[in-house]
Amino acid sequence: MKSRLVQSVLGRRAKARSAVLAIVVGAVVFTFPSASRADGDQFLDFCSGSNVSCQNGAQVWEVIGEDKCKVEPVSNTEVCIDYDSDTVYVLDGDADGNSALGTVYNDTFGSVMYRICRNKYGQATWVKCNFNWVENDNHTVYGGVRYTNSSFSIDPLWEFENN
């Protein structure tokens, strides 16, 4: 009889621990935003501007058709541009936990002045973003990194026009 009592008490304790664990795990799951909300195209507060186009890049294994590439040395972000298709490629070169950014800026024609491509996949990964910019304009390409929704750093890499 005593062994049944001990097993019964131990069984109730195990069930109680399981219930507490389930409540704790449930609380953790519900306190984080869903992946689609956390990783949406509004990854910077700056993206909400009417003259800004932000994209989370699609992961690719290689850069195809690039006309020019350059590395931003502080963040080790590499940005490549294919002028014919208005495509931006971004390589995250650092294992720092921050997203790499490639940006194309133009200040003359069209309503969109900033096109920002984000690589959220981590070090040694490439992403591709397809934009549509006015070729008959001056453009500046930037590379850098996103720290938080309100904090990022980009540096100019090169300029191009009529492409």
Gross CATH architecture of the largest domain: Sandwich
Tally of DSSP β-strands: 10
Give the DSSP E fraction (strand runs of 2 or more residues).
35-45%
Number of helices: 2
Distance separating the two termini: 87 Å
Pick out the low-confidence regions: 1-38
Q: Give the assembly state of these chains.
A: single chain
Whole-number radius of gyration? 24 Å
Give the CATH class of the largest domain. Mainly Beta
Largest sheet: 5 strands, mixed
H and E order: HHEEEEEEEEEE
Topology:
Blueprint: H1 2-31, H2 35-38, E1 52-56, E2 58-60, E3 68-72, E4 77-82, E5 87-91, E6 99-106, E7 114-119, E8 126-130, E9 138-148, E10 151-161
Parallel strand pairs: 1-7
Antiparallel strand pairs: 2-8, 3-4, 4-5, 5-8, 6-7, 6-9, 9-10
Please characterize this protein's 3D structure.
The longest helix has 30 residues, at 2-31. A hairpin with a 4-residue loop joins strand 3 and strand 4 (77-82). The chain folds into 2 domains: 2-32; 41-161, Immunoglobulin-like (Sandwich), CATH 2.60.40. The chain has helices at 2-31, 35-38, and strands at 52-56, 58-60, 68-72, 77-82, 87-91, 99-106, 114-119, 126-130, 138-148, 151-161. The protein contains 2 helices and 10 strands. Strands 1-7-6-9-10 form a 5-stranded mixed beta sheet, with no helix packed on it. A 5-stranded antiparallel beta sheet has the order 2-8-5-4-3, with no helix packed on it. With 163 residues, it is of the alpha+beta class. It is globular, with a radius of gyration of 24 Å.
